[in-house]
Amino acid sequence: MAQRIFQSFRRLPSQLTSVRKKQDTVEVVGSHYKINVCSNVGFPAKPSSLAYDQSLDIFALATRDGIFFGKPGVVYYGSHKGALEIIKVLFFTGMGKLLTLSVDDIIYVWEIVSPNGNQPGLQNIGQLSGVSDALESKHLEVDPIGDITSHITALIVSSSNSSILVGTDQGNVAPIRRNTHVKQGVDQDENTMWIMPSKDKIITPHRALQSISPEKRTRLRLDAVVVLLERPSYPSQLLIGYSSGICLLYDLQGERVLALLPCQYELEAATWCGGSGLPVRGAVANPTATPPHLGTRVLTAYGNGSLGVWQIPLFATGPGLATELGTQTLQMMESPSMPYGPFPCKLISKVFWLPSHEGGITIFTGGMPRSIYGDRNTVSILRGSNLDQAAAANLAAALRADSEGDADCERSTAGQEFYDGGANADILLPSGLVPGAPVHVFDSDAPEHVCLDLPSLVVDVCPLGPAGGPVTGLLILCEEELIAIDLLTPGWPLLELPYLNCLHASSLTTYGLFTQVNPAFLEGLEAIGGGADAVGPVPRATGLSTRTWPIQGGELGRRNEVSEPVVPSDDLLITGHENGTLQFWRLAAGGCARKIFCLFTGSLFEGDFGPDAVGDTHRACEEESEPWPPFRRVGLFDPFMDDVRAAIKVIHLVDSTLVVGGAAGQVSVWQLAPTKPTMATLDVPVAPEVPGFRWKGYAPLTLRRNQLDQPQRLAGASLFPMAVALCQPPSPVTCLSACELSDFSAMDKSLQPSPQPSPTIGVLVGMGTAHGFALMHISASEGGFASHLLLHHSTIPSNAEALEEAAVGEGWARRRTRELKNSLRDSFRRLKRMKSGRSTMTAAPIGPVAVTAGSSTSAQQTTSGSTVSPPANRLNHPPRVGLRKSVSRSASAANQGIQIRGDPLQEALSRVHSDNETLTSPPLPTGCEREICDRPAATANTALVRCMAFGPPLHHRLRPPAAGITASTSATIETSQLLGSFFAATAGGATFVFALYTDNVRRPSHLALRQATQMQLQHRAPIVALRLIDTKTHCPLLTSSVYLPQFSSPLVPSHHHPLPPHLMVISEEQVRLFSLPSISLRQKARITAKDGFRIKTGNIMAFGQLSNERNMGIYGIEFNCVFTNNGGQAVVLSVPYLRRRDTIALLGGADVLEINSIVFATAASTRPKVTAAPSLGVYQTAPGQLAIFDMVLAGQRSSALGTAYRTVGLTKVAKHSTPSPSPRLQQRLVKPSTSTDTANVITGSVPISENTRPSVNGF
Fold this sequence. Notes:
Methylamine Dehydrogenase, Chain H; 62 strands; 5-stranded antiparallel sheet; 5-stranded mixed sheet; alpha+beta
């Protein structure tokens, strides 16, 4: 009764806040601080296309949310304003420009520009929309009918870079020429950049059939265009392939069909082939030159998994020959062959024929038997088929037999330059074939044949190398990773990726960015990288090539030697995975990451964990029993894990000690050691046996029997386990904290650490679960380590409901509750997006270039000059052929004007760097004032331990614990000297403070704990972070050390003590500052009650330190409290007064994955050389991609630690002796551009916004 009476009085202070104090205004402006998104590490989500520039030796990877373009250390980003789905990317070879085709059939043009001469980027300079509808309207000579839709299904760039060729699903093909007659410095728009074809230049199905005899015309069906290929050395001859299986060789100059290639199967892909398969002389010096013999044959792929070869003769082309010469009907050199038949096979979606030093290489995707291997994703590579043998023996004869006159003899003589002859060169038939040698594209007895078995769907395949050969490599783009094959080394091994690494080979469960790592620890990891783990030798990745990365286009820019020195990075990114592995990554600018070590923590336990349980071993046994097809397992993506108890939940690194917490309550402690020590084990009863509590979650893990007394199996130093603790009940570990104890017995006057590191004699490890927390002491013993349990405390309420809920663990009840909450949240978000989408249904089309209302595009003009109205929204789905196969059904929302979420990196950059367009846009939502509801005090959710920390000695007046008795010697040990403090905070707003005592402060060997105090927040909000702040300097103290840092007050005689630090408690609703050891409130900042947002994570950061001031100490540095909320904002509070300094938009409110995954970087060393409060952070943008951001002052480029990740620009690209180099491109890329050059380069009548402004990366 009394509680109900006083309940209203508890809410009275919060209700009268607006009366007593003026409400603070929340400004989301970012005027004092900013966030620089440095780079993306890992593989992006939803990749769609690959492209390679043979002249500049660079490649582009397009995703459905943006564009990734670069080489090691050089990265360009360009994103569409509406984040449209990109389905194709193509290069203008050697020009530094590229095209992208979006899902709504808009063609965008991008260019490498350098606005300031130092940081070039990828900038959109124009677009071309309505191409397919314009071609259809010109063909019908009327406005497009409302229920007829047309889409682009094929797109190529001509070899001369003067035009693009477009094919539609209605069978129309049209060349669109670039306007090259514009004076330099004149702005170009959509009307002047492109020249649309006239009616008589469009190759319609009706027009193509006019040159074919009537008896053959009736059987032909020309539907969607899926193949467009220029004939090598004959750019006026175009190969057009239709989905029905028919191919036409069309003469663009004579406007007639030269040859007809009929087939009854559905056509999927085609490529030109022919010749000896050897590379052209001088191909490296002239990478864009195409040998003429590549156009003697055509290799086609069909939907039934078969391949066909066609012999293409030479034709007399030109205007005026349409009436003199008819269309030839060609036949396959033999019936289509199914590589993996004769049973029904899957379609072959892509096919390539590439020259190499040992003959032509045939590459195709798919073609597997449906009944046996229909679920496999494969790319087949073979060399040595009799197609290459026959072509090599008959190149000269084929040219002589199919041509006449002296010009043909000259071509035959020219062909001898690429072919030196063979044993059967003199034995030829009139048709140019070797007697008795059938021409196959596939030979089961090929000397080199491999079928790459990929773990995810194949999206695109891109060969590397000059056009004339030799082919140097092959890029295979899958849905979850990028795979590179070395085609120069025998056996075709894999190439190690310098970027776009597969971080989610096993599902990511946790990660951490640790700065200023101990150099000895890094050197040790580098020395043993890939060599061994705790159990034994780790199998190294077989089949890795020793060659360097083949893509080397571009050059790295140089930093300013005065103001921007290169700071070496000692940072380490550690990722934890579901299969119990830890991956250690060294990072660099431009998204580059290098894996230096892999640790199998599951090897310590019984079960299918560790390197022996990897699926490749079982797959290899399966492959041995199935020699055909010759499968080779490639790729790292393997997200399936039956037993998730070994999953990594928490990672903590301090100095040379690594602590890992798992999903089944296991905590392992690792250190570098020259020999394998004896591992200590300990059972931690976090929740004691109480009536009504019975664990129903995971089964506990058991250590391997041969783990404790395992003989030495490793030679040299490695990362070995010191101790393993198994929490009972085996619930997931929620937080960890570690502290190394040093030996200061040699020091006489002070306990302050010396510049030289002191030897470590023990480790304190704190662990927290959903039921409580514990503290373990690991000390060195003879031949190994010994562990002692100092503390175990249960935080579960004593009522029956809480005990029953806590006993479920990760069982069905808690999981079902969580799924129900997520379902309700998703439903409300879906309704909110639907409401916001209705307002954009009538908006203008999405794109980076806005078209004024008074102008009409050339694609929408008819020959008579009348304009065509934009097509109405259509509900019918286009045929899934050609380029439209990769388009999802949900992509139709883009055509209806619904906003689609864009690239996370580009969105963050656009939100951080505001321009004129951003200033005119409405402000971001800042939440609203809401009532703080009472939280339940006796539930299992309040027992979860969120964070822990160590601190210096505080409670000097507290009575020491009683003397203890050692178990080994039965001697009494006095622990009367105060060593430090230990803090633990729960999700119920409770903070426990313990005093840590030892027998000898300078050399602690025996420790004991006594609880000093306990604090309970009145609002009972979960505590997300605990930080200790120095009283005088306001510098944060390291939460992984019990020793005071060097800048703090030195220790004086025992009757005087230094000023105790302050304790900052960051909960989900408030930020409070307490004085220690009395736990009295000094400052408070109410966040949720004013903003309406909940705090997700927080930390103390240092601002104002430059990269060249590494030893300046703490003077001149500004320390602030930074936290992120569920609205995607980063809020800066001053220390120690907790006044709001700034609010920065980091992410969008709908980016739930990114917001919940934000992790601030921590200093891994207790003696940091730069700063103990790094301003770096990481968040997850995709299942296998992480973004690193740096928070600095508004006028600062980067922080002291962020300099290593700050991108630097390119000044030029690698030079190649191209036949027609562009002087304008050389002027822009070879030397820094001036203001005049910039005005000439950036063309277009529309201002550039931050949504289209790229970020340039390099290192």
